[in-house]
Design brief:
Mean pLDDT: 91
Low-confidence stretches: none
Number of strands: 7
Strand content: 15-25%
Number of helices: 7
CATH class: Alpha Beta
Order of helices and strands: HEHEHEHEHEHEHE
Shape: globular
Number of domains: 1
CATH topology: Rossmann fold
Strand order of the largest sheet: 3-2-1-7-4-5-6
Largest sheet: 7 strands, parallel
């Protein structure tokens, strides 16, 4: 779990705001870290939370037992695919290697035109500046096209992210966010 109090507060605010906006949370199904905080606060605020967790993680007792629904998969790959199917949009909040893995995979799927679902990077305290810099370096080096910038949107705060999700739900008709 991130040690930055701003990130913990943002996670709690995000869970509450999702629930109040009537948006369903689809996430990795754990009870630990910032994602556990988001799930806890979404549930406490009356929201719907769907966790998708592989059996090996559920068996290690990291599964969240207080969420609306838990879907157990046979692998990480199946987990990602199922979360993708359930989500209408993707939101990345500050996180670690798992966040980077999932963010880059969903960006790659969008680049390959496997989906056109919105991808939002909630850039709390500049947390995604290094990731954005990597993408910019790939463009500058000729390894990615400039169109890569259009694969995602950067939002500066939880409030801005929720507002963007509300707008997207109105325009696109979806109300599920994946983290």
């Amino acid at each position: 779990m991130g040690s930055d109090p701003a990130h913990a507060a943002a996670a709690a605010g995000f869970g509450t705001a999702l629930a109040h906006a009537g948006m369903r949370l689809v996430y990795g199904g754990g009870r630990v870290g910032l994602m556990g905080v988001i799930a806890d606060t979404a549930i406490a605020a009356g929201g719907t939370v769907i966790g998708v967790i592989p059996e090996f993680l559920r068996a290690r007792e990291v599964a969240h037992h207080g969420i609306s629904e838990t879907i157990v998969t046979d692998s990480m790959h199946t987990r990602k695919r199922r979360m993708f199917e359930l989500a209408d949009a993707f939101v990345a909040l500050p996180g670690g290697l798992g966040t980077f893995d999932e963010t880059f995979e969903i960006l790659t799927w969008r680049q390959l035109k496997l989906h056109d679902k919105p991808i939002l990077l909630c850039n709390i305290n500049g947390a995604f500046a290094p990731l954005i810099a990597i993408i910019e370096a790939a463009i500058a080096g000729g390894f990615a096209r400039s169109e890569a910038r259009g694969l995602f949107e950067v939002t500066p705060t939880v409030a801005a992210t929720i507002e963007r999700l509300r707008h997207l739900a109105t325009v696109r008709g979806g109300a599920s966010a994946l983290l």
